[in-house]
């Protein structure tokens, strides 16, 4: 175990009735980093948060905090605080009283409470708001109050359960910057739950991508985006073009009826693979100059780029993000660098894979 590890899950399983929501999950959380648990609804991310907080106990496996097993440790004995999705602020209390609530329960001196609350409010840029009623606060201000209430107790870990989901897009983006800056100033561990991929990529030191109670992949935002480990991760994180292919040899892969140079190696010869190319890595060119020849099927203007959907002769769809406009119905070429190709091992059986490639052999696919 890393000496800097603050939380460790060891083969943790949890279920509701007969439904398994976490399936022998193991991971480590290091001190002082911003972690994001990312995945679709029902993947198990909020369950992990609740297990760390002590709101439930695992059915099997062990949870460690600073090296000590905490499976049965009550929530109020843990050095963590939670910022909930709805913030869970008390509407009948003002800002000061909301932030001071936990300190009063601990029976701290009045002078210590006042000092700590003012310091916490200053930290989240709410100095002078002590007597303001919660009903008079904006969504972003309420979130800051909830964070102040969490940090005033000086926890070692702050858990955030989709705290930005109720905000409008502009405020949500602003709060992403504020949360990230706050975490870096505090220097403590944040564990953030979201289903928003862009949010996770923008804010995190490390991301855990979950699906069906299993961590599919973990790593830095760049690792997850540039090197997805399977189809689910590639499809869930950003937009992807995914095509069936075969590995011809190291640094050589075939898909869409042609062979291409790539940067991947270590797979078996003729091993079934899936090829990922991100939309922004495809460049529009003349049809004759393209590595792929495609027909433009549709086009949308997204402000900073055009989103162009194309189809090749094998009915593969190719999504392109380009500042260059195309015309629906025209034939164009697409080109890309070897580094833009990411090769993933194919997860289906070879029989299923061969069915998906049916008809390709007649055009020389993989030969």
TrEMBL record:
One of its GO terms (cellular component) is ATP-binding cassette (ABC) transporter complex. This is Spermidine/putrescine ABC transporter ATP-binding protein. CDD domains: ABC_PotA_N. The keyword Transport applies. Residues 7-237 form the ABC transporter domain. InterPro entries: AAA+_ATPase (IPR003593), ABC_SmlMolc_Importer (IPR050093), ABC_transporter-like_ATP-bd (IPR003439), ABC_transporter-like_CS (IPR017871), Mo/tungstate-bd_C_term_dom (IPR008995), P-loop_NTPase (IPR027417), PotA_ATP-bd (IPR017879), Transp-assoc_OB_typ2 (IPR013611). Keywords: ATP-binding, Cell membrane, Hydrolase, Membrane, Nucleotide-binding, Translocase, Transport. Coiled coil: none annotated. Pfam families: ABC_tran, TOBE_2. Its EC number is 3.6.3.31. It is an enzyme of class 3 (hydrolase). GO terms for molecular function: ABC-type putrescine transporter activity; ATP binding; ATP hydrolysis activity.
